[in-house]
Amino acid sequence: MLAYAALRVPTLAAPVLGAGALGAVFLGLVLWRGVDELLPWALLALGTGYTVSLLVHGHGVDGAAPLVAVGVLACAELAVWSLDERYPVPAERAVVAARVWALAGLAGAGLAASGLIVALSASQAGAGLIWTVLGAAAAVLAVAVATRLVRRAG
C-alpha cells in the first residue's frame, strides 16, 4: 500500500514512506509486545501516507482505493486476532473456521461494495441521481453484510 502511495507522488515519497514506517513500527510493537493500544495509531499512520498521496496527486478517484481499504481491514482484523491468540484459552476449530469465513466474507463484501462505489463515482454520469442511489445502496448493502457476518460469527 505504501509503495503504491509513494509511487503515485514521487516528490513526496519520503513523507509517505516515513508515515508508513512509523505505522509499521507501531504495528510491530502491537504484534511483538502486545501493546494493543498502538493498533489504532498504526492504522492511522499507514492510512495517512496513502491519504497524503491522494491529496497531492489530486486526480479524481483512485481506482485502487478498494484494494487499499480491504488491505487495511485485513491488517486490523488479523492483528486483533493475533492479540486474541495470546490468551491461554484455545479456540475450538468451529470458532476459528467461523472467524476465517467471517473475515473472508467481510473483505469480499467490502471489496465488492467499495469497488462499485468507486466505479460509480468515476463514471462520466456520476452526478446523476441514479448513480447516487446505487452508490448509497451499495454502502447499505456492505453494512448489512458486515452486520450479518458479525451476528453469524457471534
Keywords:
154 residues; mainly alpha; 0% strand; 2 domains
Report on the structure:
There is one protein chain. The two termini are 31 Å apart. It contains 6 helices and no strands. Helices cover 79% and strands 0% of the residues. The longest helix is centred in the C-terminal third of the chain and has 30 residues, at 93-122. It has 154 residues and is mostly helical. Helix 1 packs antiparallel against helix 2 (13-33), helix 1 (2-8) runs parallel beside helix 3 and helix 5 packs antiparallel against helix 6 (129-153). It has 2 domains: 1-88, no CATH class; 90-154.
Summed up:
Helices cover 79% and strands 0% of the residues.
